[in-house]
Amino acid sequence: MKVRHNKKRNTAFVYEVLLREATVAILKNEHERKDKAISIIKKHFNSDSILRKDLDCYRSLYENQNLDRLTCEKILKEVKLQKRLIDPNGLFKQQTELIHDVNKELEPSTFNNFVPNYRTLATISQIFSSKISPKNQVILENEIIRNMLNEGKIVKNTAPIDNVVYKTFVEKFNKKYENGLLEEQKQLLTHYIASFADNGVELKFYLNEEIARLKTKLEEAKGIEEIKLDKDMLNKTNQVIEKLNSFAQQNANEELLTTVLKAQSLVKEL
Questions:
Q1: In terms of domains, do 242 and 262 share one?
Q2: Between 20 and 30 A from 85 (CA), which of 74, 200, 208, 230?
Q3: Count of alpha carbons within 13 Å of 265, Cβ hemisphere only?
Q4: Residue 213 structural domain
């Protein structure tokens, strides 16, 4: 018998929903809504919270890709151990408080937002359940390992998901991103919002790599005939590179975010 998946009790799902809610608010200049989403993230996913420990268990399984099988199996084993050390009553209580805050500060429909890796998160939730049979436990664990190895995707029937609900998720997601945001811009915004929960550690790593990539692409663009022969375009390209260089020792803020977003669009256009 399959265990019914409760997405509101799936810590990683709610976290991803809040990330996307804040990201969309930034894109639409809805500052009050953005502040509310970020406030909920900071309140419930700080480094000392049970929810953060639970989220780390999920993330260890769905954020690792292209690893060797032995490493994947070791990670899965350690995650299951760490998950068992989490107080279930304390976790349930904090999840209840999180759900209450989302309903109150945003609205209940927030939980209907589409999360691209929803099926994977649902499958991980099944693995963490004590009600699953040994056979299904092994089958689902193998699927998770395959996903970490990047050998395949989570099969559609590993969790009982209502196809009508799933379709609604997709439609809502597509509507929110109808402005055609670049994939690298989505990644930047997601890292920026997530930085409020992990003190910006992952954002700093991402920015270092992304700014280096942008500067390389812009330096290469200076060799393009149209730019090389146009003094004004060449000067503006150099100004963008200098601006990116100035961010080396600067903490992430909305000015930096806006500049990098524009540089990403420029590089794509070039």
A1: yes
A2: 200
A3: 8
A4: 183-269
d(CA 9, CA 99): 8
Mean pLDDT throughout 207-223?
Answer: 90
Report yes or no: 154 and 120 within 8 Å, Cβ to Cβ: yes
Are 82 and 210 within one domain?
no
Do residues 93 and 158 both lie within one domain? Answer: yes
Q: Is the confidence at residue 256, as pLDDT, over 80?
A: yes
Residue 162 has pLDDT above 50, yes or no: no
Same domain, 83 and 19: yes
CA distance 141 to 159: 13
229 lies in the same domain as 138: no
Assigned domain for 2 exists: no
Between these two residues, 133 and 205, which has the higher pLDDT value? 133
Q: Among 26-30, 156-160, 202-206, which stretch is predicted with the lowest mean pLDDT? A: 156-160
Helix axes 50-62, 134-149, angle to 10 degrees: 70
Q: Is residue 241 part of a domain?
A: yes
Burial class (CB in 10 A: 0-12, 13-18, 19+), 135: exposed
Per residue in 78-98, pLDDT (tens digit) is 999 999 999 999 999 999 999
Same domain, 161 and 191: no
Mapped onto helix, strand or coil, the DSSP state of residue 48 is coil
Q: Is the distance from CB of 60 to CB of 75 less than 8 angstroms?
A: yes
Contact 145, 69 (CB under 8 A): yes
Domains in the chain, number: 2
**Structural domain includes residue 103:** yes
Cα separations in angstroms, 203 against 29, 88, 159? 21, 31, 32
Domain assignment present for residue 187? The answer is yes
* pLDDT at residue 248, as a whole number: 67
